[in-house]
Design brief:
By secondary structure, this protein is α+β, with helices and mostly antiparallel strands. It is built from 2 helices and 2 strands. The chain starts with a helix and ends in a 7-residue tail after the last helix.
């Protein structure tokens, strides 16, 4: 197998595991269907409480030295290509 495919598979599994374990949802009330006869009473939707994990995000300033490149074209250098 290619290393890129393996790394992508591992990253996908980690992302799915992260999503599963970072959210905790508990049902706090059961659902019920509306009573239907001559008059209709409203139903009841279930209630849920959800707890999510905390993620702290920050920034860091990093200074790097970027090399400069001088490119001299043959016209500027007065050179010509030889086709020998």
């Amino acid at each position: 197998m290619r290393p890129g495919l393996i790394i992508a598979s591992v990253a996908a599994v980690l992302a799915i595991a992260f999503g599963v374990f970072m959210v905790d949802i508990d049902q706090t009330e059961e659902a019920s269907m509306p009573d239907v006869d001559i008059s209709v009473e409203g139903g009841n939707l279930p209630e849920f409480e959800a707890e999510t994990g905390d993620i702290e995000v920050g920034t860091t300033t990093i200074e790097t030295t970027v090399p400069t490149i001088d490119i001299v074209s043959p016209e500027e250098d007065n050179r010509t290509a030889s086709n020998d």
